[in-house]
Design goal:
53 residues, mainly alpha, globular, 3 helices
Length: 53
């Protein structure tokens, strides 16, 4: 998965991208993990199954 697949068009900024970025920031603060780890795995994809349980 490339960054553009996940984030869409990186040049477009609106309320949805702000909310998404804020959510990723909160996940980083809560978990102590970076948004993308060394193997380029997304924190969101890692956390989603845990949140939806």
């Amino acid at each position: 998965m490339s960054k553009t697949d996940y984030y869409g068009d990186l040049r477009r900024v609106d309320e949805k991208t702000d909310v998404s970025a804020y959510g990723v920031l909160l996940l980083e603060l809560i978990t102590g993990r970076q948004a993308l780890d060394r193997s380029q795995k997304s924190l969101v994809l890692w956390a989603k199954p845990e949140i939806l349980m």
